[in-house]
Design brief:
Two copies of one chain form a homodimer. By secondary structure, chain A is of the alpha/beta class. Chain A has two domains: 137 residues, Nucleotidyltransferase, domain 5 (2-Layer Sandwich), CATH 3.30.420; 164 residues, ATPase, nucleotide binding domain (Nucleotidyltransferase, domain 5). In chain A, the strands form three sheets. In chain A, strands 3-2-1-4-8 form a five-stranded mixed beta sheet. A five-stranded mixed beta sheet of chain A has the order 11-10-9-12-13, sandwiched between helices. In chain A, strand 6 and strand 7 form a beta hairpin. At the A-B interface, helix 8 of A face helix 8 of B.
Chain lengths: 339, 339
């Protein structure tokens, strides 16, 4: 990707890195399906990107090899020497101890437990590294360059296969006492199933409005009498059909929006955050956002929170990883200058 | 009250006020029923207390007169001159802008709107003053000298007539972007009514497990066939009867505990706080705490939060107000020393 295409990023970098600094940082998004890397200069301009499939991967070595090879290729692409790399930050879809640099647990394809990802990155690449939960990084990304630019307090709510949120309080990611703040997949609102959930399995809320949950709901509701549509559709397709007027798809959209509005309502009462950014493949569907706003209004709150769509879309966590890597590079530069 | 009775407070003061400082601070709890004051020395030892009824009061002047007269009497009680008073902090049952010192809105008896309470206290008493929401002060109290001593992250959950919570994150009160963090009276969990709530009226959750809500639930459930008990009981009496085995009272206790466990579960998912302290006249009933713990276990969480009873009981907010007043006195002393 050339600089032209990423022009937007340059203008949003409000940090104080001098333009005379030479060097690059890498942001990594380790997803369940794809591993993506972005190379950015120290002004925050993304100059090269890469994506490879990790479908079926569960070996940590294989993931680490992809990251290392990717970094080399990205540097070559911009003809930069290896020592131009100043830092790297990576996000994984799981609870992550940011201070120790350990991915405590991932669900879905990876299934990692207590992976010392920061140390592995530092050993392999010999640069300062950082790791975080991918949804937290998406919140950092939206805060830096997206729908929550310059906002001090907001929640990034991601609905993809599953469900999670990244919370920013007083302009900083709030990760919780045990790194699990915002892990709302098990939240209980009216309509979530009563049966206790097995740890590691989709939570009550996730089973209703996570991407997989919506798919299962559709299959349960589906009957050829009520819709001409196929029984096997994903959440985004269902919401598309709702927009086109299919009554069963509309009913499921309404149900999802109703539950999502209750989740936002509950989180708003606890956190008193005035802004919620909806992201993730399912969460950023405009029909869901629109219906959720209407449902929130019906709750008759004195000052309902604002609900907006992610501006960075599927790039949110990658751009957040770049921002995190820039922060590390900058804090080290300040340290070096101070000594 | 003599020093003997308050001996416990002295030992918990971990701040650095020197014992050679002479002076006193006052904490005030402006409740819907009673106005209470506590005079403490700069070591945090409470040396005198006072309580007067404000039932039926809605004039701000009358409340201010009670506070000023009370302060004079407390100082006289310990034979301290007027200039020995170093600071005062007051809590009211409503959303409070701590930085501007304004009580934005109170419900129940007071019905205040945008009352500049800090300025009024400073004008009347000529000492540095502070104001906060009463539940936030109760959390500060429990954090200083009660069930959450030295705990960095916890929630104080108060159930009295209504319902509220005070959140402490990283050892500091978290008040939210608009001073309304933890105002959970409108939270929606399975079992709360679906009908939209009128602003200013009891919220969905409050109507089910606030003290008044439980009373109303009892009256709705009550039938002379099912219980020999009276139709007119308050929440604490109902929980007492549950302990004694009345089946209808037991059913209502179970229902309340179930909903409370869902509230704690939801707040825990968002905040990742490992400790919840139950307080308030209804919330600190041991039967409710016990039943709630069992319900939480049934939710099958990986690491459920700990739920404990308030240690300070009805004094929590008053002791929190004293702590807040001490903080102000101390920060001013540090400022004076630095100049």
């Amino acid at each position: 990707m050339n600089q032209q295409q990423n022009g937007g990023i340059l203008t949003v970098n409000q940090k104080t890195l001098s333009t005379t600094d030479t060097g690059y940082v890498v942001g990594v998004d380790i997803g369940g399906t794809n591993l993506r890397l972005a190379l950015a200069d120290l002004n925050g301009m993304i100059v090269a990107k890469q994506s490879s499939s990790v479908a079926g991967f569960n070996s940590l070595d294989a993931v680490m090899r992809l990251v290392c090879d990717g970094v080399e290729q990205l540097l070559q692409e911009v003809s930069a020497p290896r020592h131009a790399l100043k830092s790297i930050a990576a996000g994984a879809p799981g609870i992550t101890d940011v201070s120790e640099g350990i991915v405590i647990a991932t669900s879905y394809l990876l299934g990692w437990r207590d992976v010392p990802l920061r140390a592995l990155l530092e050993d392999a690449l010999n640069v300062p590294s950082a790791v975080d939960n991918d949804v937290n990084l998406a919140a950092i990304g939206e805060n830096w360059a997206g729908a929550a630019r310059d906002v001090q307090d907001f929640v990034f709510l991601a609905i993809g296969t599953g469900l999670g949120s990244g919370i920013v309080l007083n302009g900083r990611p709030f990760r919780g006492n045990n790194w699990a703040a915002g892990e709302i997949g098990y939240m209980r609102v009216p309509g979530t199933p009563d049966t206790p959930r097995e740890p590691g399995k989709p939570g009550s809320l996730e089973s209703m409005i996570g991407g997989n949950g919506i798919k299962v709901q559709w299959q349960n509701l589906w009957s050829a009498q009520n819709t001409p549509l196929a029984r096997d559709l994903n959440a985004t397709q269902i919401f598309d059909h709702a927009l086109e007027g299919d009554p069963l798809a509309k009913a499921l959209l309404q149900q999802s929006a109703h539950m999502l509005s209750l989740v936002i309502h509950n989180m708003f009462l606890v956190l008193n955050c005035p802004l919620f950014v909806l992201g993730g493949g399912v969460g950023s569907h405009p029909a869901l956002c629109h219906a959720t706003r209407i449902m929130l209004e019906q709750l008759n709150m004195r000052r309902p929170p604002q609900v907006v769509l992610s501006m960075l879309g599927p790039d949110a966590q990658l751009i957040g990883a770049v921002r995190f890597a820039l922060d590390i590079a900058e804090s080290l530069r300040i340290k070096v200058e101070a000594t």
